[in-house]
Write a structure and sequence with these properties.
The complex is a heterodimer of chains A (about 425) and B (about 110). Chain A is of the alpha/beta class and about 425 residues long. Chain A has two domains: about 190 residues, FAD/NAD(P)-binding domain (3-Layer(bba) Sandwich), CATH 3.50.50.60; about 150 residues, D-Amino Acid Oxidase, Chain A, domain 2 (2-Layer Sandwich), CATH 3.30.9. Helices cover about 30% and strands about 25% of the residues of chain A. Chain A is built from eleven helices and 18 strands. In chain A, strand 9 and strand 10 form a beta hairpin. In chain A, helix 2 crosses helix 9 and helix 3 packs across helix 9. The longest helix of chain A has 21 residues. Chain B has a single domain, classed as Folate-binding fold, CATH 3.30.2270. In chain B, about 20% of the residues lie in helices and about 30% in strands. Chain B is built from three helices and six strands. In chain B, strand 5 and strand 6 form a beta hairpin. The longest helix of chain B is centred in the C-terminal third of the chain and has 10 residues. Chain B is globular, with a radius of gyration of 14 Å. Classes of the chains: A alpha/beta (about 425), B alpha+beta (about 110). The interface between A and B is medium-sized, with 24 and 27 residues. The complex binds flavin-adenine dinucleotide and zinc ion. The site of flavin-adenine dinucleotide has 39 residues of chain A, from helix 2, strand 12 and strand 16.
């Protein structure tokens, strides 16, 4: 595979860009692989990448029922931050955030990682206390965050209305090295490197059954024939329930729709990410100038990749309060993704009741930021057969043992 | 926007009047249940891609809880019924089977 570089751009400019190669191959599937990963979203592809890079396992296939990155990875609002409350969360999210810092160089693919700073507004006394507590927890965890005053908020983001009326801005939790990245590029960058290592990314390959014998994994049935494997990892986000049913077990998960929308492009008005969890809305501005907006998830189980109309209204209504200028914007597009919600709002990286069958799911509304760290930890678990220090707190057993990693406050609004 | 029927008020109202309460007919566990049973009672969910038998509360109406059979794939509603039942009534099952002959309550519990 040719390296991408400024030299390559110049070279191609001289030959009408005829020399660019396909970023990944579409190979003929083998009968059997060492590891099969179901789901070519960010987490599945990152898992494959670190299996190869960190553990030298490259006889790997990633099966995708649609197109790679077409699930939540290509539908999210790309907020990256690691200011969670609990130690296990801070560890994996900060690992992830720090991997993002050099991921473009590592993958030789421009992910447009932009650590522009993430601000979580405190708009009630409870939030003030909650975020001060998080800032202190983060200090102990070695995650640089800071509780800032309303004046600093206004300084960082002049279009904010501090004075309410319902919820005046009382302060904010600020993570200067949080930000955004280009979501598709994360999937594409990993896919390109996986393909370069000889892994097979098989699109339009839907897994329809799980083959097991005496409680041990054997492979999967797909819409075009069986594929055998020694180890299987299910990484299908909102569709985890369906895969678990094929495997004969249940998960502590419910799938709901989460929506986002973008406005028409406008001149630069904000260069930070702002989240307002009390009023349930958040916003950032993309490099194209669109305001990227998200809000709350629907309350009921849903697989339709749409969402309830009233949620758009709620989100926009609350944002207008905080950013009055939004009221003059036209919205361009709206879409939904199916997110997999756990009771404690923390993910699952775990073995399953089937031997050699692993699962990575439950990232719900906030897993884009976790893609590199999660892939790292999941690959480690698959390679060694046991979860390492990053993944082990997130095992399925925690629900039986009552050992929750409660992030319902830090996860707050859906992002 | 879902249109749900409250079987107590006998009114068809918009989704915004209701609160979704998740999977219905989950068997409550008692003091002598095992950890495993408690885990599935509290957390393990069917989360089907298909017919979901679920609880709803008529939050901004009579305030009562009731049950709804709904497809999570098409959002079609097969009917609502009283919460004072241990399984979907015959009429609801027949409604579901008209569209989905394969569906059986026993397999979907
Ligand atoms: C509107 C919205 C906004 C969000 N905003 C943020 C944010 O700001 N910050 C953040 O950190 N996170 C955010 N998230 C969450 C984030 O998008 C997800 O947690 C993350 O992308 C999950 O990645 P994944 O690889 O696990 O799943 P996905 O990207 O959904 O990939 C799963 C893949 O599995 C495939 N699949 C499913 N079933 C099968 C099958 N049977 N056979 C083969 N393949 C199958 C799917 O087609 C899909 O491509 C948001 C999500 C949404 C929907
Ligand atoms: Zn009623």
């Amino acid at each position: 595979m040719k390296r991408y570089s400024s030299f390559a751009i110049v070279r191609e400019a001289f030959r009408n860009h005829s020399g660019w190669k396909r970023a990944w191959a579409s190979p003929i599937p083998k009968k059997k692989y060492d590891v099969v990963i179901v789901g070519a979203g960010g987490h599945g592809l990152a898992t494959a990448y670190y299996l190869g890079k960190n553990h030298g396992i490259t006889n790997v296939a990633v099966l995708e029922k649609g197109w790679l990155g077409g699930g939540n990875t290509g539908r999210n609002t790309t907020i990256i931050r690691s200011n969670y409350l609990q130690d296990p969360s801070a560890a994996i999210y900060e690992k992830s955030r720090s991997l993002y810092e050099h991921l473009s160089q590592d993958l030789n693919y421009n992910l447009m990682f932009s650590p522009r700073g993430v601000m979580m507004l405190a708009q009630t006394e409870h939030e003030v206390r909650g975020y001060k507590r998080t800032a202190m927890a983060n200090a102990l965890q070695g995650v640089p965050t800071e509780y800032i005053s309303p004046e600093k908020v206004k300084d960082l983001c002049p279009i904010i209305n501090l004075s309410g009326p319902r919820y005046p801005v009382l302060g904010a939790l600020w993570q200067a090295r949080g930000g955004t990245a280009r979501h598709d590029a994360v999937a594409w960058g990993y896919a390109r490197k996986c393909s370069e290592m000889g892994m097979h990314i098989l699109q339009q390959k839907e897994v329809t059954s799980i083959i097991s014998k005496n409680g041990k994994i054997g492979g999967v049935g797909t819409n075009s024939g069986d594929i055998l494997c020694d180890k299987l990892c299910i990484v299908v986000a909102g569709h985890s329930g369906a895969l678990a049913e094929m495997g004969g077990f249940r998960l502590p998960l419910e799938s709901v729709a989460l929506q986002a929308l973008v406005s028409e492009p406008i001149k630069p008005v904000m260069d930070v990410v702002v989240m307002a969890n009390t009023v349930h809305g958040y916003m950032s501005q993309s490099d194209k100038g669109e305001m990227v907006i998200g809000g709350g998830a629907d309350g009921y189980n849903n697989y339709t990749q749409r969402g309830s109309f009233q949620h758009i209204e709620e989100t926009v209504r609350s944002l207008i309060e905080t950013f009055p200028m939004v009221s003059r914007l036209k919205m361009l597009r709206q879409w939904g993704g199916i997110v997999d919600m756990t009771g404690d709002r923390s993910p699952i990286i775990s073995k399953t009741p089937l031997e050699n069958c692993f699962i990575n799911c439950g990232w719900g509304t906030g897993g884009f930021k976790a893609i590199p760290g999660s892939g790292w930890a999941t690959a480690e678990m698959i390679a060694n057969g046991e979860a390492g220090p990053l993944a082990s707190p997130f095992s399925l057993n925690r629900f039986k043992e009552g050992r929750f990693i409660d992030e319902s406050v830090a996860a707050g609004v859906a992002h | 926007m879902l249109l749900l029927n409250c079987p107590y008020c006998n009114l068809s109202c918009e989704e915004t009047e209701f609160l979704a309460g998740g999977q219905a007919h989950i068997k409550r566990q008692s003091i002598d249940s095992s950890d495993q049973e408690f885990e599935s009672y509290l957390f393990a969910r069917k989360n089907p891609k298909g017919v979901h038998i679920e609880r709803w509360q008529h939050l901004y109406g009579c305030g009562k809880w009731f049950h709804v059979a709904r497809s999570t794939v098409t959002l079609e509603i097969f009917g609502s019924y009283s919460a004072q039942t241990l399984s979907p009534p015959k009429k609801i099952r027949a409604n579901i089977n008209k569209k989905l002959p394969e569906w059986h309550w026993e397999n979907s519990k």
